[in-house]
Design a protein that fits this description.
Rossmann fold; 4-stranded parallel beta sheet; 5-stranded parallel beta sheet; 2 domains; binds phosphoric acid mono(formamide)ester
Length: about 325
């Protein structure tokens, strides 16, 4: 029997996602449990983290399990992912052995592996996560690669709590690009587009130019979700009309895919759009809208102090919810 992984929410049915959110709500009420008693979770980080590492480690502990953190290339051997490679370079062992061995020790593996930012056609294959899922004999969780499905559920739980209902259909949802001095991962933007449309919201992707539209895979998922959920999807480059009447503003910065691996010409373009910052004037255009961000966030670059410190900001609630939704995901995967 093949194991079920948590690689993308799009692989899970809507009733399955709703059940995870219900379980997360229950864990929020009752912190401790025994769903992971005697079980081990291996957390493999190829990139830094504050929220993800802390919430996975503590969440595992709170359910009676034990988490081990590994950072390949730092405190664990560098891993080779290509097949057929003569490994006479920097890598010491192959993912085929790493995933199989970790799967003999641990009951769940979780992986964070950001893009290399050199060639999007390679990065969009999500090869590290796919290789772990291919070789692991136990469930694998995506802790952010080119999507961030744990963040998706934490975000939706925070919105459901804010609006006092699990039914988010018809809410006007704006996913806005914001400025950042560096080109960042599209993962959270891909994920926000995916889950907002899955929940039947009326979604606007607000970005500076067509170059900032997301990869066709995620635009395609969003369109398929809209057809299924009855929501809507539009792309806008006009700040005022996008914010007008919005119920939700979700902000993220990302690099323009046509410039992937050749970022120098993108810098002067992005520098023209610092005014995409989420500020009080833009939020005043909304329908008393709620603001959130996955964090970390550079204050007064992506959003102003005034927005971050306002009652409309639910970013801290969303971050807390990472703990609860990940406990629900781990409990579900450990007992499949
Ligand atoms: N939002 C999020 O994944 O935060 P970290 O990068 O700190 O884990």
């Amino acid at each position: 029997m093949s194991v079920k992984h948590f690689l993308n929410t799009q692989d899970w049915s809507r009733p399955e996602l709703d059940a995870l959110l219900d379980q997360a709500r229950a864990f929020k009420q009752t912190k401790l449990g025994d769903q992971l008693k005697g079980k081990a979770v291996a957390l493999v980080f190829f990139n830094p983290s504050m929220r993800t590492r802390t919430s996975f480690e503590l969440g595992t502990f709170q359910l009676g399990g034990h988490a081990v953190v590994l950072q390949p290339g730092k405190d664990a051997w560098p891993i080779e992912f290509d097949l057929g490679t003569v490994m006479d370079g920097d890598t010491e062992e192959h993912i085929a052995e790493v995933a199989k061995v970790l799967g003999r020790y641990a009951d769940i593996l979780a992986v964070r592996a950001f893009p290399k930012f050199v060639d999007w056609q390679i990065d969009r294959q999500d090869r590290v996560l796919a290789a772990f899922a291919k070789y692991s004999p136990v469930p694998v969780i995506n802790m952010e690669t080119i999507t961030h499905p744990c963040q998706e559920l934490a975000h939706i739980l925070a919105l459901q709590e804010h609006f006092g209902t699990t039914d988010l259909r018809g809410k006007k949802y704006v996913l806005t690009w914001t400025y950042h001095p560096k080109p960042l991962n599209t993962a959270v933007a891909n994920s926000a587009l995916t889950i907002a449309t899955r929940m039947g919201m009326d979604v606007t992707l607000l970005c500076p130019t067509p170059d900032y539209i997301l990869d066709e895979r995620y635009m395609g998922w969003a369109e398929a979700n809209v057809a299924e959920s009855g929501g809507s999807l539009q792309v806008s480059h006009d700040i005022a009309s996008a914010y007008a009447g919005a119920d939700v503003v979700y902000a993220k910065s990302w690099g323009a895919l046509p410039f992937f691996g050749n970022w120098a010409p993108e810098q002067p373009i992005r520098d023209q759009y610092k005014h995409f910052i989420v500020d009080e004037a833009k939020m005043a255009l909304t329908n008393n809208g709620v603001f959130s961000h996955c964090l970390p966030l550079r204050r007064n670059v992506k959003a102003t102090d005034g927005v971050m410190d306002s009652p409309q900001c639910i970013a801290i609630n969303e971050a807390e919810n990472r703990l609860h939704v990940q406990k629900a995901i781990m409990a579900a995967l450990a007992h499949q």
